[in-house]
Amino acid sequence: MDADLFDAYLRDEARLGPAADGAFTGAAGGAACGDLARISLLVDDGTIGGVTFDAEGCGATRAATAAVAEAIDGASVLDVARIGTDEVEAALGGLAPAKRHAAQLAADALHRALARAAASDEVLAGGAEGRVLVAMSGGVDSAVAALLEGERGAEVVGITLKLWADPDTDGAKACCSPEAVLGARSLAHSLGIPHLTLDLEEEFRRRVVAEFVSGYAAGRTPNPCIACNGEVRIAAMVDLATRLGASHLVTGHYARLVDDGKGLLLAAAADAKKDQSYMLAALPPAILERVRFPLTELTKPEVREIAARHALTVARKPESQDLCFLSGQGKADFLRRHGGLVEREGDVVDRSGRKLGRHRGHHDFTVGQRRGLRVSAPEALYVLDKDAEANTVTVGTRAELQSTRVRVRDAVLHRDGATVDAVRLRYRSRPVPAVLDTTGTGERFELDIRLEEEFAGVSPGQTAVLLAGETIVGHGTICS
Length: 480
Fold this sequence. Notes:
single chain, 6-stranded antiparallel barrel, Sufe protein. Chain: A, alpha+beta, SH3 type barrels, 5-stranded parallel beta sheet, Rossmann fold
């Protein structure tokens, strides 16, 4: 540690004081450790000014916070977004291991202030040819996407979304938790990439989680990932890309963009096992014009090999198989805590209404489910329907589960309905040949889909993705 430098920062009172009017403020620390760092800043056309700070606790925390305040005053947002714990420690001439937490607190306070700026309407950087914003979750796919963009010569800026914070969620597995934000920031900085955080938790809770909970309460099986991508995440990041002067938002999704002569449409990626075009189906064409998927032609093993070749720490990081807000906890427990959906016994019945058994709550079941029915029968039975009001679960044979007609609501057609020749009714299901009952483009309150092959397990609440050849031309929510 450089003692003179440390003491100089410890005595620095030039920027010590309350936040200026309209400043973006971030704080880190608190009662648990006894140390607190606060950074406040203004942004004017991409340049940071009006910096003030405050700190409580040990001298290392006060010195680290002062060092950050001095370093960022007059710097560009993108340069400041490169500052992490290592840079703060270096500014002090090094810290003893027991005091390194001070640099971490000061860096966290800074990035929380930047996050508030990112969530505002402020222009954070002027336009620059070749600049892209890369969505970084802290996983291997987004890391390799950022790496590939850098290798092709793009100026890369990393962004991580904070969508959910819940003590019962395993933050290490969730892609949008506070822990994921820290991991993604560290990864971005290791690649020499500036990193920002965008906090959308309030909107995510209202538009995604609340709909998920209410859907199950009403007897549906909603698909929150499609709503999240189509209505919350991607659009917000594209808006931020504009305010950062970036031409495109880049993500690590496995999907493909196809120009059919009328504009860009989604299609499946090369790796059928990882294809995520279904989960992106609600993205409007205007958004597709602003996104890019560099993993389009790669398989997952190839992505991991690229990461290992570049010694990325996430090369072998396992994938989470849960919804981000369910990581580490069961769905039933989540619905109980966040929606008040407790165990409530009801009847398991057949199509005729004959009672076959009892269940502990309709929300524990999904149309098409076979296991866990607690009903004895000479042949396998499946969930055919759920009635939330009566709290009944209807079961039947696989033949009874088959459907040839599907009704959807809130449908959107990007191309003429007459071009639709297939539909995907679940994430991992294959396309089913189909015909719509309507022509033209635009929004439809309801429309009917006639399946040309039987499909087992059409589930209300899931998304019907409409296809014309290889491209996605529309979508709607299954209602019956």
